Amino acid sequence: MKLLVCISKTPDTTSKISFDSTGTKFNEEGIQYILNPYDEWYALVRAIELKEKFGGEVHVIHVGGSSSDMVIRKALAIGADAAFRVDIDPKDSFHTATQIANFAKAKDYQVVLLGKETIDHNASEVGPMLAAILDLPFLSYANKLEINDSTATVQIEVEGGVEVVEVQLPIVLSAAKGLAEQRIPNMKGIMDAKKKPLEILQAVECESRIQLVNYILPPAKTQVEMVAPENIDRLVSILRDELKLI
User: Fold this and answer.
1) N or C: less crowded end of the chain, CB within 10 Å?
2) Element (H or E) spanning 232, and its range?
3) How far apart are CA 144 and CA 154, in angstroms?
4) Where are the domains of the chain?
5) Is the pLDDT of residue 101 over 90?
6) What is the per-residue DSSP string for 180-203?
7) d(Cα 70, Cα 84) in Å, to the nearest integer?
8) In angstroms, rounded to a whole number, what is the distance separating the alpha carbons of residues 57 and 126?
9) What span, in angstroms and rounded, lies between the C-alpha atoms of 68 and 96?
10) Which CATH class name applies to 2-218?
11) Considering Cα of 74, then 80, then 81, then 85, what sign does the dihedral take?
C-alpha cells in the first residue's frame, strides 16, 4: 500500500504573534516552528499504522523552503519512509494544493492523508482543493479509518454525532482527533531519519487566487472582574450595560 501524508509547519502555540509595520507580513523573528499537530499526531501516525498492517510505504510531502527540513525530518523519525519538499513558499491554499497534486497525480497513492487543518490558519482548505484537482473522493474530519481490500470505511465527525461512509480507494482524507494516537520519535527513529531520502522538487507555475490586504491582531484581553454571588446588581449591570447581553 502506498500512502502519502501532506505535512505543514506551524508556529508553536506558545509563540508571540506579530506582524511587520505594513501589517502584511508575519514576523518570524524568534518564532519556533513545529510539525502541524493534526498532520503529525493523526494523519501521519494512521498512515504508519496502515503500512505496518498491510505493508508498503509512507511518503510525506511539504511545500516550503529549506527552513522546513527540520520538521520534515521529524516526520521521517516518527516512521515515514521518504520525504519530498516542493521548494517554494506557498502563496495560498490553492497554490499548496496545486504543488502537491502535481507530485501525487502519477504516483498511484491509495490514500492521501492530511490534518483537518493547520493550527495557525484553521482554514481546512488544502484537502478539498487537492481532492478536486486529483478528481478523487474527499472525506473530511475523519476520526476512524479502516481498509479492506480496495474499500475504505471512514467514520466522520458531524454535528451532533458521527457518520460512517464506505468508499472505494483511492481517496483523500483529512484527519481529526481520534484517528490515531500520538507517537514520540525514539532514538533509533531519529538516527534512521538522517539516512532516509529527502528529495527536493521544483514547483510548478500557479497563479495566486487571493490578495492579502493585511493582518489584524485580535483586541487585547481585558482584565477579569470577580463578582461576588450576592452582588446581583453588579452582575446585572455587567450583563446589561457592558456586555449588552440582556
Assistant:
1) C
2) helix 232-237
3) 6
4) 2-218
5) yes
6) S------HHHHHHHTTS-EEEEPP
7) 13
8) 23
9) 14
10) alpha beta
11) negative
The strand ranges marked E within 87-207 are 111-115, 138-148, 151-158, 161-168, 171-175, 198-201
DSSP string, 4-70: EEE--EEE-TTPPP-B-TTSSSB--TTPPEEE-HIIIIIIIHHHHHHHHHH--EEEEEEES-GGGHH
Q: Which residue type does 75 have? A: A
Neighbouring C-beta atoms of residue 31, cutoff 10 Å:
14
Average pLDDT over residues 111-135: 95
Give the pLDDT of residue 204: 95
Whether residue 246 has pLDDT greater than 80: no
Query: Which grid coordinates are listed for 163?
Result: 457518520
86, 72 contact by CB (below 8 A): no
Q: Which residue has the cell 453588579?
A: 234
CA dist 173 and 145 (Å) reads 9
Contacts of 187 (CB under 8 A, 6+ apart): none
Asked whether 46 and 25 are in contact (CB, 8 A), the reply is no
pLDDT higher at 25 or 82: 82
As given in the structure block, the three cell numbers for residue 5 are 501524508
Given a contact cutoff of 8 angstroms between Cβ atoms, the answer to whether 127 and 137 are in contact is no
